[in-house]
């Protein structure tokens, strides 16, 4: 059974850090590009960061560039999103999703409709 599980969300103070995990089962995650999307209250879902299959390319939205880092652990069949210097505007439900490697990471992060599989969201709240 194909499954993606996103975890690691929580409450953190501004300036703090969190690491989100996206664990896959039923398929080999390294064969897929992986995207992290987020949806803040009252806003549309947006692409935050994407990584190509094989780790050749990564993409970050301007709003998180320099603060977030995406990476893979193929031994654990997982992808991580390390988030540093969190801001209140980073508060959102974060989703991971995968797509077969047919598109560039820029296109993937801009096109949630392309995703093949989605995980349940994990809530990140940045508040003092």
Radius of gyration based on Cα positions = 13 Å
* Helical percentage: under 10%
Rough outline? globular
Catalogue the unreliable spans: none
- The helix-and-strand class reads mainly beta
Number of helices: 1
Average pLDDT figure: 95
The helix-strand sequence is EEEEEEEEEHEE
Oligomer: single chain
**What profile does the largest beta sheet have?**
7 strands, mixed
Counted beta strands: 11
Distance between the termini: 40 Å
Give the amount of beta strand, in percent.
Answer: over 45%
Q: What would your notes on this structure say?
A:
- With 128 residues, the protein is mainly β.
- It has one helix at residues 105-110; strands at 3-7, 10-12, 18-25, 33-39, 46-51, 58-60, 68-73, 78-83, 92-99, 117-118, 122-126.
- It is globular and about 40 Å long.
- The protein starts with a strand and ends with a strand.
- The relative contact order is 0.31.
In brief:
Helix content is 5%, strand content 46%.
Core attributes:
single chain, 128 residues, mainly beta, 7-stranded mixed β-sheet, 4-stranded antiparallel β-sheet, 5% helix, 46% strand, globular
List the helices and strands and how they pair.
Blueprint: E1 3-7, E2 10-12, E3 18-25, E4 33-39, E5 46-51, E6 58-60, E7 68-73, E8 78-83, E9 92-99, H1 105-110, E10 117-118, E11 122-126
Parallel strand pairs: 2-11
Antiparallel strand pairs: 1-3, 3-8, 4-5, 4-9, 5-6, 7-8, 9-10, 9-11
